[in-house]
Structure formats: C-alpha cells, structure tokens
Amino acid sequence: MIIEMAEQLQSKKIAKNTVLLYFRMILGMVVSLYTSRVVLKVLGVDDFGIYNIIGGVIVMFSFINTFLTSACQRYLSFSIAKDSIDETKKIFSTSLFIHIIVLLLFALVAETAGLYFVYKELVIPEARFTAALYVFHIMVVESCMSIFKVPYNAAIIAEEKMNFYAYTSIIENVLRLVVVYLLVILPFDKLIVYSFLHLFVSVIMLLWYKIYSEKRFCYCTNLVRYDKKYLKSMTLFSGWNLFGSIADIGYKQGTNIVLNLFYGVVLNAAMGIATTIRSSIYSFISNIQVAANPQIIKSYAIGEYSYYSNLIYRISKYSYYLMLFLAIPVILNIQYILQIWLGNAPEYSASLIVLGLIFCLIDCLHGPLWTSMQATGKIRNYQLLVSTILLLNIPLSYIALKLGYSPNSILVIQIVVSLLTLIVRLLFSCRCAVLSMTDYLKHVILPICVVTLLSVPLPFYVATGFEDNWRKLLATGFTSVVSIIVSVLFVGITKRERYSIFQMIQKRIKK
C-alpha cells in the first residue's frame, strides 16, 4: 500500500511537470510558427536556407558537447536519488570543469575544420558568402555559451524544477518576438542582424540559468575543479556516448548537408520548414519524456525496478498516442496549413513534413529505452551498434540522391533505419536494463498497433469528402480526437490506468 501511494505521488509529480513543460512548449510553438513565417519573409528563401545550412554545420561539430550532456544529467540524478550533497557537489564541479574544456575544444574544431567545410564544400551564392561567414562565427560563439549552460540545465532537470521552464519560456519567447521586430525595422543586412540578435538572446538565457541554479541548489557553485574519480567515470561514460552523438548529428544534420550538395539552399529552406513543424510537434512528446527521465534514473538507482519498468512502458505508450493525436490532423491538412502559414512554401516542404511526422511516430519510442540504458551505465556495446546503424543514414542518403531519387528518399531512409534501431535498443534494454521483451510487446507494441489500426481510418475517410480548407481541418481534427480518445480508453491502456483517469476526471468535476 505504501509503495503504491509512493508511486502515485511520483506519477502526479511527473504529470505536474509535464503540464508545466506543455505550457512552455505551446507558447514556444506559437511564437516559433509566427517568427518562422516573418523570418522567411524578411530574409527570403536563399538567406533562410543559408542560415539553416550554416546552423547544420555548427551542430555537426557540436557533438563534442552533446555526448557529455547525458552524462551530466545521469550522474546528477543518481547522486540526488542517493541524497548525497557532497557527492553531488563533486559531480557538478567536475561537470563544469569538463564543459569548459569541451567549450574550448569545440571552438577550436569549429573554427578550423568547420570553417574549412564552409569554404570548400557548401553551395552558397557568392554574393552572400561574406554574410554567411558572419553567421558562422556568431553561431560558434552562441554554441559555446550553450555548452557552458549544460551543467546548470542538467541540475534543473535532475531536481525536476519544471516550473522554472514555464517562467523561462515567457522571458525567452518575449525576447524572440523582440528579435523579429528589430529584424524588420533595423536597416542593416538582415541575415547578419538576425544572427547577432539570436546571440544576444543566448547571452541573457545563459545568465538566467546560471543565476537561478546558484540561488536554488547549494551544489551549484562557481568553483571549477574536478574530482579524479568522477572525472574518469564521467569521461568514460561520455566517451561511449560520443558515438551516439555523432550518429545523431549524422541523421539529423548530415542529411541536410547532403541535400545542399545536390540541390542547394532552396531545398535546405524546405527542410528547415519541415524541421520547424516536426520539432514543434515533437516537443509535445519530449516534454513527457523530459519530465519522466529523472524518475526513471532515480528509481533504477535505488532499486525500484517494478516502478522503473512500468514507468518506461507507460511513457513509451503515452508518447506514441500523443504523437499520433497531433500527427494525423497535420498530415491530412498539410497543404492548407502551409498555405495559411507561409503562403508560398518551398518545393517539397509538404512531403518532407509528412514523412518527418511518420518518422517521429517511431522515434518517440526510442527515448525511454535510451534512458533505461543510460541509467545502467552499461552503454559501450549498445552505443557502438546503435550508432553504427544510425550513421548508415548519411551514405544511404547520398547514394539515393546520386541515383536520382527525390529528396523525399532521405526521410524514407530515416524511417527504415529508425525501425531497425528501435529493435536493437529494445534487445539491449531487455538484456542489460531489467526490462522484459514479453512485457514490452504486451504493454507497448500491441496497444499502439491496435490503437493505430482503429483510429486512423475514420479521419482519412472523412478527409476524402473535403477540399483543402478550414472545414476539412475542423472535420479531420474532430474525428481524429474522437477516434483516438475512444481507441486509447478502451484498448490502449490498462484497467488500472483507465480507472485512474476516470477518478482524476471526477475529482476535477467536483472541484
């Protein structure tokens, strides 16, 4: 009884944190959709494409930061679960030391290899090359600040202070609106101005994260020193995550560069639009997983394996349902959405968005399995195999475009590779992270397949009776909501989960 009550309290905390993250996400999505439209209009297709492709190069070389982020969050969550302040202080100060080293390494790599790549490989109009160089150097500085912010961000997530993100989202999105306003009125090169304004926002957000963390958490100090024990273990852990980070950059940003090599900046603009919508919708899913990840790691750290495994199954399932809930109306109305949002969208934008959302339906199942392996710390063989498979995206995409296939083939390849890596992740989690293959198939794969088969046909059938307009959007949106909710309630969740939902609704009604 006590264990069940504790699990309910933990679940309520995850639910509360998820709601706070949703507030942050919805506000960010609305602002992002508006600012993307204005920025595309002000910059034009070529400059917008240049900004995206330069950003892709920066992200490609920022893997030296990314592979350390998960280590920082994992070690902080572990020590917080064990309630050891001294240990947590050592981990944070060691993490700060590591990220300063990483920052310097990133700047060196970006300003040498990255700059060489911009000069020799990217297809950029000659008249805009100088502006592109300004953008590149500004983005390097911005990325360095992002690297330095990682330990503070990891501490906030490990402590599950998601209300901070709700408040921060208001500040950040107001600043983004100010950026768009200044971009329109300032009489200078718009691409360079946009980059400088983004840098200004990054400076403010870094200071905000740092001040908050140092005020709220006693272990967040300015003392930069390292503990040999944690330096070694965190570096080894991060080293194996390096392969995962390279692979992540490969299938997300490397393909964008492959597109540029064959089609130039116009297709990069289309991919940028597709990525904006995909990221905005996927942020719904990441909010659930970000809220649950600390609980997954902490429950594993203290040996609560029953709660740990059930939480992974539930989060995987709920992530898929929410992704399906959002993806179907967008897929069925993508032409109308693009027309209202952008007016004249770049070619291939619609098809890239649709395929990207199908990819997200598979990809949203990866997160909880990834966290389960991070919790164990047994990631060497896991990262080697998964990363090798993910890196296949780059040569396969290049071969497909070289053979004359359309840009859509890149997303088709990503979907196939994502299915394969999901199987591999599951096998490793069952072997190393005390999950059960039978339970995963029973509690995750079977329910989501049944819900998909039951809920998808109706909105697709309704869509055939309308032209692309607001009536179709409302009709398909309504039928999607009804069919998915009914399917989830009756076949997509357990009796216990259904009972908890109905009880929660009754309590809300009584209030």
TrEMBL record:
- Keyword Transmembrane assigned: yes
Q: Where in the cell is it found?
A: Cell membrane
Keyword annotations: Cell membrane, Membrane, Transmembrane, Transmembrane helix
Classify the protein's membrane topology as the record does.
Multi-pass membrane protein
Q: Spell out the GO cellular component terms annotated for this protein, sorted alphabetically and separated by semicolons.
A: plasma membrane
Bilayer-crossing regions: 21-44, 50-76, 96-119, 131-152, 164-185, 191-209, 230-251, 257-277, 320-342, 348-370, 382-401, 407-428, 440-461, 473-494
Name-wise, this protein is Lipopolysaccharide biosynthesis protein
Q: What organism is the protein native to? A: Bacteroides ovatus
Lineage, highest ranks first: Bacteria, Pseudomonadati, Bacteroidota, Bacteroidia, Bacteroidales
